[in-house]
Amino acid sequence: MSKILIRGAKILGGEPRDVLIDGETVAEVGTGIEAGDATVIDAAGQILLPGLVDLHTHLREPGREDSETVLTGTKAAAVGGFTAVHAMANTFPVADTAGVVEQVWRLGKESGYCDVQPVGAVTVGLEGKQLAELGAMHDSAAGVKVFSDDGKCVDDAVIMRRALEYVKAFDGVVAQHAQEPRLTEGAQMNEGAVSAELGLGGWPAVAEESIIARDVLLAAHVGSRVHICHLSTAGSVEIVRWAKSKGWNVTAEVTPHHLLLTDELVRTYNPVYKVNPPLRTEADVLALREALADGTIDCVATDHAPHPHEDKDCEWAAAAMGMVGLETALSVVQQTMVDTGLLDWAGVADRMSLRPAAIGRLEGHGRPVSAGEPANLTLVDPAYRGAVDPAGFASRSRNTPYEGRELPGRVTHTFLRGRATVVDGKLA
After folding, report:
1. H or E stretch including 291?
2. How far apart (Å, rounded) are the C-alpha atoms in residues 117 and 109?
3. Does position 388 have pLDDT exceeding 70, yes or no?
């Protein structure tokens, strides 16, 4: 493999440095590195980050290839600066056996654009009635470490306790989709003033917060790890903050769209804004930003949820929930967290690479940009400004809430173990 010299990049936003990639690793970091026979990339003014890691991606394969495939999803991930994603289990068939998670893992290997770490289902068929083959999925070639029924909540307290006990044996983690089902029957959007005005079924914050409160207590009782998916309310932040103050092994993620968008957008009745959990209030958005900044929320996860055109181009009540997010995530984080002064670029690296890799126990990712480390890297031009055009997405789906919206920053290059997957903003 040829050598690559990244010239003058600001590593984590610091002073400009040269970074020499030789094969699959970072060979040297410094100033005035001789290029020799290396391909030179002029990165003046750009930010060099460790490759981004997403704990929450829906790749849809097997079963819903009309929405996304592992190949198209990993292409989208690479364009967004990601070198690893965790593929959620709500496929058809459900990823609740060693055979299915190995299939997803092997498809990821074949894609070559991004590492794919399958997430195993907690319960058989996501039905919440009996535990899936947790041990077999962990012992498979896929080496599953994260388990989730995402899309559905593990609402049975006994099942949740047993899952936490089971994964503790191999330091796994249960990632909970916190949604009390009885409290959200018929819910269409956040419960509040806007839902009352529009006459849409409300989705109360307590439906999320009650499950989180129960599960942090269960995790403490068992002495196991629990991770909260797509945390979305100010009350949820306070519960997680309290649990962490107790020293309990609780982590949480927030999506880019919950850092930026509010339920006021639902007034348009455009189903592109229909998502689970729903868009919340401005007060919730500000609380989420502060919690991500102070570390109460550990990481940003996209909850990339592709849908075919017909599942969104319909009336609100019939529309599927979800948004694509891999290709815009870093730009939204720059706008909401960096440009507002809440995080610096080192903080972005921590929340979008180091911490998610640590939570998922993912080796080779979330590593420092230093000599001897794997060359999983992302190069970003923070000065770029441009309107989002979903027609140019690498994803198979186009259900983005940002169409036409100007967002800052652009990933110019992504490197997976020293091999460029994105060059000058385009797939290699």
Report:
1. helix 282-294
2. 10
3. yes
DSSP state at residue 316: G
Number of residues in the chain: 428
* CA gap 162, 177 in Å, rounded: 17
Please answer whether residues 302 and 359 qualify as being in contact, where contact means their C-beta atoms are separated by less than 8 angstroms: no
* Predicted confidence band of residue 359 (pLDDT cuts 50, 70, 90): very high
Residue 320: both structure tokens together:
């599927």
Q: In this predicted model, what pLDDT tens digit does every residue of 404-426 receive, in sequence order?
A: 999 999 999 999 999 999 999 99
Helices (H) and strands (E) in the chain, counts: 12, 19
Separation in Å, CA 229 to CA 106, 151, 325 = 25, 10, 15
Three-state secondary structure call for residue 114: coil
Q: Which of 333, 308, 331 is nearest to 405 (CA)?
A: 331
Pairing of strands 52-57, 47-50: unpaired
Beta strands 250-254 and 225-228: pairing type? parallel
Measured between alpha carbons, how far is 236 from 250 in angstroms, rounded to an integer? 12
Collect contacts of 310-316 with beta carbons under 8 A, ≥24 apart. 311/67, 311/399, 312/271, 312/272, 312/399, 313/271, 314/271, 315/271, 316/188, 316/200, 316/269, 316/271, 316/274
Check if the beta carbon of residue 153 is closer than 8 Å to that of residue 228: no
Whether the upstream peptide bond of residue 277 has omega within 30° of 0, thus cis, is yes
Residues annotated as part of the active site: 303
CB atoms within 10 A of CB 283: 11
Using CA of residue 219, residue 225, residue 231, residue 237, what is the dihedral sign?
Answer: positive
Q: How far apart are CA 177 and CA 102, in angstroms?
A: 23
pLDDT of residue 2: 83
